[in-house]
From TrEMBL:
InterPro entries: NAD(P)-bd_dom_sf, SDR_fam, SDR_member_12. Pfam families: adh_short (PF00106). It comes from Cloeon dipterum. Signal peptide: none annotated. This is Dehydrogenase/reductase SDR family member 12. The lineage of its organism: Eukaryota, Metazoa, Ecdysozoa, Arthropoda, Hexapoda.
Length: 310
């Protein structure tokens, strides 16, 4: 069942019910920041927003790749309001410094950057690489950028999650998977993506003036998939979604009036809010567990946002 929904055929079936008018939006005067936007669905989302006249900020680790993407987007759209920012979101202090130096107003943040590292790597802060990128970096960037939304009439935050989280229950006590006997990058990634769902739901409650959402792009043919999951790619490559299909719901959530009518904090697939748990799921966490998880993120926020840490 999931195979059908997440694959290209699942998108094609869902697209038959899309309202074409939803994406006929003039984005002139609106500002969009997209992490991990030099390739894949992040790049395609940036392209579509620029095509509609939006000012787009590409936030990427690799300056060369980001500049190439920027030049390509400008050339294809004729929109010169596309800007490159170099940032590795796995580095907490760099995230804080970046936001402090980001002087632009913002309407929409798309948390798209992520990683799937298959061996345990700890940084100088004791943060495991996947957790640092997918969870901590995403949380710090989102929270730090909230002040940039103050002048926006339609502030939105979209976090690109994954269907892999459907098989994971939040482990609030061990978010870095330190107790995992044999390190499994896919399982760690799925745990991170479950954390992003909880994070989105909780931030939506805490900041009612901003519209939060998370989404699953389906199984799309991206450089990240080819690199991180080569076996999966080789098995599924003829059935994977294209990057524009994977990016469609990101763009819809970023600009469509219909998306804003949905309650804040929901999880979407193919422009539709869907459950964050499978039927008869054992993956639901308690309010207490979610409080513990969010407190851990808040503790990291205070740790890295201190003046003496800049």
């Amino acid at each position: 069942m999931l195979y059908c929904i997440f694959s290209r055929s699942g998108y094609e079936a869902a697209a038959k019910k899309f309202n074409e008018e939803d994406l006929k939006v003039d984005c002139t005067g609106k500002s969009y920041l997209i992490t991990g936007s030099n390739s894949g669905i992040g790049k395609h989302a940036a392209l579509e927003l620029a095509r509609r006249g939006g000012t787009v900020h590409l936030v990427c680790r690799n300056k060369t790749a980001a500049q190439e993407a920027c030049d390509e987007i400008k050339s294809e759209t004729g929109n010169n309001n596309v800007h490159v920012h170099v940032l590795d979101i796995s580095k907490p202090r760099d995230v804080i410094r970046f936001v402090q130096s980001f002087t632009h107003e913002l309407d929409v943040l798309v948390n798209n950057a992520g990683c799937m590292v298959h061996s345990r790597e700890l940084d100088e802060n004791g943060l495991e690489k996947n957790f640092a990128t997918n969870v901590v970096g995403t949380y710090l960037l989102t929270k730090a950028l909230l002040t940039k939304f103050e002048g926006s009439s339609d502030p939105r935050v979209i976090t690109v999650s994954s269907g892999g989280m459907l098989n994971q229950k939040l482990d609030a006590e061990d978010p870095q998977c330190d107790k995992m006997k044999t390190f499994d990058g896919r399982q760690v990634y799925s745990q991170n993506k479950r954390g992003q769902i909880v994070m989105t739901e909780q931030l939506a409650k805490a900041h009612p003036n901003v519209h939060f959402s998370s989404m699953h792009p389906g199984w799309a043919d991206t450089p990240a998939v080819r690199t991180a999951m080569p076996d999966f790619y080789n098995k599924m490559k003829d059935r994977l979604r294209t990057t524009d299909q994977g990016a469609d719901t990101i763009v819809w959530l970023a600009i469509a009036a219909a998306a804003k009518k949905q309650p804040s904090g929901l999880f979407f697939q193919d422009r539709t809010p869907v459950s964050t748990h499978l039927p008869l799921a054992w993956t639901k966490s308690t309010p207490q567990e979610e409080t513990v998880f969010m407190q851990k993120l808040e503790d990291l926020w205070h740790k890295f946002n201190r003046v003496d840490c800049q």
